[in-house]
Every structure is written in structure tokens, then in C-alpha cells.
Amino acid sequence: MPDPISWSHELPFYGLWLLIGYALGSIPFGLIITRLAGKGDIRAIGSGNIGATNVLRTGNRKLAALTLLCDALKGTLAVGLAFHFMGRDPAVFAALGAFLGHLFPIWLKFKGGKGVATYLGILLGLHWLTFLVFIVVWIAVAFLSRYSSLAALVATLATPFVLRSFGEFQYFELFALLTLITWAKHHQNIRRLLSGSESRIGAKG
């Protein structure tokens, strides 16, 4: 994290990039894409979530894939811009802002997605090697368990420790926080996993 001595001088810039990240992250692509495609309000379908998993419940895989891509790229764009113009520390704040923007968008009364796609996009922008590890872990867990939510939970849990193994202690702290928030947003999925009522990948109904 930033040097405490320079904190007071840098704080306005960090706050600015936090807000820029939030603005990008709060764009509700799932809602926009489904409405433009004539699918209505995604919040009235399935879980009511605006993320790609719920968009998939419309039966349109292309729309779900596009939502996943856009939700990820807004995280990548936020950290990429901050890193390019200001450096590493502002990128961390932009990352946090983008993630919180996706979860709590002001335009939707702070009711957004669960954050996995944006988490992944941020990871791609900050440390692509760990991004690849995330993908491998997600695929392995999803293949073995057939639970998308479990794959996301395991992959996000592993991410901070992978970053730490690379010596990325600043990113370790960031993603430890993002992982805690992600798990909190998945509390209903965790309950269903424990009770055996969570929907499996490919299950109908």
C-alpha cells in the first residue's frame, strides 16, 4: 500500500481513481444487453441478478457470454487506465472501485451482481499469470463438481494465496478483501451448496 508519509499528498488521486473505477464498474451491462436484445428486465428473471449466470437463464448463451465479457472488461479497463496514467497504487484503488461499482451500482439502487466476472477482469489487468491459474482452477472444480458457484468460490479463495506466492503482497491484500466480499455476496449459494440444493451446470429448471 502507499507510503504513509506520502498518503496525504496522494489521497486525492487515489480517491479520484476509486470514483473512476466505481463509475466504470457500475455500468449494468447485463441489464443493458438483455433489454437491447428484447429479453426484458433481467432482474425479473431467475435469481434477479444482473450477472452473466442469470443472463444465461434467458436461454441465450451469446448474451450471457457478452455480459461476462463486458463485466470483466470494465474491471480490466479501470485498472489499465489507472496503471497507465498513474501507476500501481492508483490501479489498486481503481480495482476496488470497479468491483464495488459492479456489486453496488448507484443506478440500480445499489443492487448489482456478485462480482466474479469483474474480479476476473481486474485480475487479468493486474496479474495475468494468476488470471490463468484462476481459469484453470475454475474449470477443474466446475468439471469435477458441476457447480459454477463452487468453482468461483474455490478459485477466488485460491487467488490471494497464488498472488502471495508470486511475491505480490499488495495484490494479495487487495484480492483477500475482494474474495471476502465475493464470498459474502455468495452467501445464498453457500447455503444451497451445504444443503445440496444448489443448481448444477447444465441442470434444467
Summarize the biggest pleated sheet: none
When the domains are counted, the total is 2
Helix/strand-derived class? mainly alpha
Average residue pLDDT: 90
Helix/strand order, N-terminal first: HHHHHHHHHH
Q: Please estimate the helix content.
A: over 70%
Query: Shape, please?
Result: globular
Gyration radius, rounded: 17 Å
Structure in words:
It contains ten helices and no strands. It is mainly α. It folds into two domains: 1-126, no CATH class; 128-205, no CATH class. Helix 4 packs antiparallel against helix 5 (88-103), helix 4 (61-85) crosses helix 6 and helix 5 (88-103) runs parallel beside helix 9 (169-185). The mean pLDDT is 90. It starts with 6 loop residues before the first helix and ends in a 10-residue tail after the last helix.
